[in-house]
């Protein structure tokens, strides 16, 4: 098959192989290896970093959705006394799988001299379990104990640890007074019994959220209805479209928010970070491309006699350019292939590799109070891999243009005179 290739390709491939085997100029061989290694490292780094950022977004999003709900429906009047009818109306949309009423409060939890702010959500446990995935398994027992008038509370695991309370012990909830005035700024307080804890794996929720029964929340707020409904749909990614459809079908003045709106700033920041990391790490490949330029320039100098002989045999300038473009591009492709293989393998096994490193070193790479999660996630996406490969190949190709053009500027007589 090689015999049918154009001679420019045959000579370019031969130059790559000769450089790798030592050739007449050992430094050219070293630069060729350096350029291949540089491109490979850049490609592998890009694939691994993008996979980690994809995994981070996937894990944090999944844990957010398990708590925040896919869609929230609010009554513009402030309360939703007719929530069963609204729930039945939303159920007519085939995408809606379940609904649950809720009422949120902002308060302070106290135990001894320890004090922590918390978001309290009043729920109906049986209904909430249909829209919140985390109310299952070990987390379900505490929610079953949330009964009207019992004033039980389920705390996030980190919140319970920070307050130093366990199941069966009590905490004090302090809320702003519903009838506060300049002469009466004292908060209202209520003692709750810890019925259990839950752990989602998202530090923001595990350390700052608690659940009580809906009727207890209504009593504390001195209202007689929930604030709205939480909806679970079949595909969380379709939440904006389903919310828009519900706006058009629900009768009345309702405000709908999907989970992407509530976290729009966070997702926008993460997208910007991913884009910037791609650009910054692409500079690694760009630096390696400069090595390709240097390697080709030295290769052209080393092969001046070969170029002169080819020119005297009738080779055109374009053919000389093709020879060195093939040499440089093949060197870049070797780096791209090697980097892609290494990057994909690392991305697939990153979790195990990090866990082994943490076990051997005793260090913990991610603090969950900073990064929300405590394990290094990774999600390999082939469109990211394709983008990285395309950028690396394009940079490798561009790096061959100037040295290849420079090779055509040498005069055969001058080159052969010194041989």
TrEMBL record:
**Localization (cell):** Cell membrane
| InterPro entries attached to this UniProt entry | ABC3_permease_C, Lipoprotein-release_system, LolCE_TM, MacB_PCD
Any one biological process term the GO annotation gives: lipoprotein localization to outer membrane
Protein keywords: Cell membrane, Lipoprotein, Membrane, Transmembrane, Transmembrane helix, Transport
- Ranges for domain ABC3 transporter permease C-terminal come to 279-412
Residue ranges of coiled coil: none
Q: Which GO terms describe its cellular component?
A: plasma membrane protein complex
Tell me what topology the record assigns in the membrane: Multi-pass membrane protein
Q: Pfam families this protein is in? A: FtsX, MacB_PCD
- Start and end residues of each MacB-like periplasmic core domain: 32-248
Transmembrane stretches, start-end: 27-53, 276-300, 321-348, 385-407
Cited PANTHER family? LIPOPROTEIN-RELEASING SYSTEM TRANSMEMBRANE PROTEIN LOLE
Per the similarity annotation, which family is this?
Belongs to the ABC-4 integral membrane protein family. LolC/E subfamily.
Q: What is this protein called?
A: Lipoprotein-releasing ABC transporter permease subunit
What organism does this protein naturally occur in?
Answer: Duganella violaceipulchra
């Amino acid at each position: 098959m090689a015999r049918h290739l154009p001679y420019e390709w045959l000579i370019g491939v031969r130059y790559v192989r000769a450089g790798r085997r030592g050739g007449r100029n050992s430094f050219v061989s070293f630069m060729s290896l350096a350029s291949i290694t540089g491109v490979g490292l850049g490609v592998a780094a890009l694939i691994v970093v993008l996979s980690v950022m994809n995994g981070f977004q996937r894990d944090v999003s999944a844990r957010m959705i398990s708590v925040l709900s896919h869609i929230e429906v609010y009554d513009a009047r402030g309360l939703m006394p007719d929530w069963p009818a609204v729930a039945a109306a939303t159920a007519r949309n085939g995408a809606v799988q379940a609904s649950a009423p809720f009422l949120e409060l902002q308060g302070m939890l106290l135990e001894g001299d320890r004090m922590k702010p918390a978001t309290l959500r009043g729920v109906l446990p049986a209904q909430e379990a249909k829209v919140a995935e985390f109310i299952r398994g070990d987390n379900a027992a505490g929610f079953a104990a949330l009964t009207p008038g019992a004033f039980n509370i389920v705390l996030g695991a980190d919140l319970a640890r920070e307050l130093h309370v366990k199941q069966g012990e009590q905490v004090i909830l302090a809320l702003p007074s519903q009838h506060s005035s300049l002469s009466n700024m004292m908060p209202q307080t209520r003692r709750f019994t810890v019925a259990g804890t839950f752990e989602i794996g998202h530090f923001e929720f595990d350390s700052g959220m608690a659940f009580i029964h809906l009727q207890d929340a209504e009593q504390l707020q001195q209202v007689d209805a929930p604030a709205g409904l939480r909806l679970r749909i079949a595909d969380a990614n379709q939440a904006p479209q389903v919310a828009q459809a519900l706006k058009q079908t629900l009768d009345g003045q309702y405000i709908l928010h999907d989970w992407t709106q509530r976290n729009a700033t966070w997702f926008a920041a993460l997208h910007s970070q991913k884009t910037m990391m791609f650009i910054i790490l692409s500079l690694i490949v760009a630096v390696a491309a400069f090595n390709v330029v240097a390697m080709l320039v030295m290769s052209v100098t080393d092969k001046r006699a070969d170029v002169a002989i080819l020119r005297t045999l009738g080779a055109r300038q374009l053919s000389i350019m093709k020879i060195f473009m093939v040499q440089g591009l093949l060197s870049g492709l070797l780096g791209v292939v090697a980097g892609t293989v290494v990057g994909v393998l690392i991305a697939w096994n990153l979790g195990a590799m990090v866990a082994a490193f943490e076990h051997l070193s005793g260090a913990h790479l991610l603090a969950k109070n900073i990064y929300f999660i405590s394990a290094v996630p990774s999600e390999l996406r082939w469109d990211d891999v394709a983008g990285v490969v395309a950028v690396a190949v394009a940079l490798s190709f561009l790096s061959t243009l100037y040295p290849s053009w420079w090779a055509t500027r040498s005069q055969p007589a001058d080159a052969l005179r010194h041989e």
